[in-house]
Amino acid sequence: MPELISKYRVFLASPSDLDEERDAVSEVISELNLTYGNPNNIVIELLKWETNSAPGISNISLQNIVNTDIPAYDLFIGLLWMRFGTPTAEFGSGTEEEFNIAHERFIKDNKSIQILFYFKNSPPHSLDMINPEQLSKIMSFKTSLGEKNILHWEFNALEELQRFLRIHIPTRINELMNNSSTIKEPKISIDTDDIQIQEYEDEYGVLDYQEVIQESFSTSTDALSRISSAMEWIGNEMNKKTKEIERLMKANNGQPLSYKVQRNIYSRTAVAMDEFASRVEPEIPIYINNFENGIDAFAKMAMIYKSDFEGKEDEIEEAKIALESLLIQIEGGVDSMVNFCDTVDNLPRMSKELNKARSNVSEKIRDMISKIQISHSIATEVYKSL
Fold first, then answer.
1. Are residues 195 and 228 in the same domain?
2. Mean pLDDT of the chain
3. Angle between helices 352-385 and 283-308 (to 10 degrees)
4. Bigger pLDDT: 78 or 251?
5. Regarding beta strands 153-155 and 183-186, do their DSSP bridges make them parallel or antiparallel, or are they unpaired?
6. Which residues pair with 12 in a beta bridge?
7. What is the dihedral of CA 194, 198, 204, 205, to 10 degrees?
8. How far apart are the first and last CA of the chain?
């Protein structure tokens, strides 16, 4: 007897400057069909103008052809970066018109559709991409989302968008499922080649993800421990240099030290700071990459618990508590790094060697802070999904 499945259609709207992100969304949909859809008798179909529209002619506008060709969908995903897009007959761009169609559907029936909107924050590849008029339209549109009670998200890297979607898409589909606004079809009628569902033997299970989590977090923690040790070391070195200056000034009856003595002290400080930067630089990608791998595995394991196991609320709650503790630790670590960077940035500009070393240290730590904050936001989304 055929099983019934729930098919959810996702429409992706964006201007042409986000081709890589559009491909990344396709990859996530294929992955979710395996990790989330297959165990829950759900099929997720991605709709895009490239694959779901066709050449044609319209007496209204080119955008009208796309609007007519795209079938009804359940989730709208919008992406914007540097370009707002080409104006249509009634709107500032095709993306805006497609969003407006989705929003009007929500107003008519707020249980029939959900809207996910993301803005890319990373800098452009070249100055030629910067168009003040386009950016102004994007900012106005972003403001309008808030006025419409639409919570948007921001991302910097391609992988960050994918991690958000792995969490957000199942969350919103579950919400739609609870609203019972789904399309039921016999599972036997689904062409698995079209939706790219893999066989179960290719899929990780709970034990596999537990191993990934343990190994990833262990490696990440070891790297962070080495970074913390390096920060403690450079802190002690800087304190030693400060005490050395105080001792020499006292011996000199409070008179200014000679330029030669000062340069010697600050040169040695610069050497120590450069050594610190060289120690933490290789540790940063180890910490970040392994932490993100662990969070990804955490999210997928929680998804399996929810779909495959009954009465596992205690395990999920334990996982939630552990993740909450991890988030608190990250917040405390970021605060310490920010304070350390502020201290380094406030060092007096005494010599070119010290200035260069100071910039080197600050750049490395602030880069790490930025990446940790991104990872923290992803981990927070996982926490909220539990």
1. no
2. 82
3. 0
4. 78
5. unpaired
6. 77
7. 90
8. 33
pLDDT of amino acid 300: 79
Q: Which residue would you say has higher pLDDT here, 266 or 169?
A: 169
In a shared domain, residues 151 and 108: yes
Domain housing 123: 4-202
User: Same structural domain for residues 315 and 179?
Assistant: no
pLDDT at 196 over 70: no
Q: In Å, how far are 50, 109, 149, 371 from 374, measured between CA atoms? A: 31, 34, 24, 5
The verdict on 107 and 143 lying in the same domain is yes
Alpha carbon 119 to chain centroid, angstroms: 11
Both 38 and 145 in one domain: the answer is: yes
Coil, helix or strand at residue 109: coil
pLDDT tens digits for range 258-315: 777 777 887 888 888 888 888 888 888 888 888 888 888 887 787 777 767 666 667 7
287 in the same domain as 257? yes
pLDDT of residue 10: 96
**What confidence tens digit (pLDDT) does each residue in 8-50 have?**
999 999 998 999 999 999 999 998 888 788 878 889 999 998 8
Helix, strand, or coil (residue 76): strand
Nearest-5° angle of CA 177, CA 182, CA 185? Answer: 125
Please give the structure tokens belonging to residue 260: 């030669």
Which CATH number belongs to the domain containing residue 217 in this structure?
1.20.1050
Q: Looking at the chain, how many residues does it have? A: 386
Q: In one letter, which amino acid is 272?
A: A
Q: Give dist(CA 94, CA 279) in Å, integer.
A: 49
3-class state of residue 252 by DSSP: coil
SS3 category, 152: coil
Distance of alpha carbon 166 from alpha carbon 197, whole angstroms: 16
| 3-state SS assignment for residue 196 | coil
Instruction: Report the amino acid identity of residue 30.
Output: S
Q: Are residues 188 and 218 in the same domain?
A: no
Residues 322 and 249 both lie in one domain: yes
Rg of the chain on CA atoms, in Å: 26
State how far the alpha carbon of 232 is from the alpha carbons of 163, 219, 220, 236, 330, in Å: 33, 20, 18, 6, 17
Question: The pTM is what?
Answer: 0.65
84 pLDDT higher than 90: yes
Give the distance, in angstroms, between the CA of residue 56 and the centroid of all CA atoms in the same chain.
38
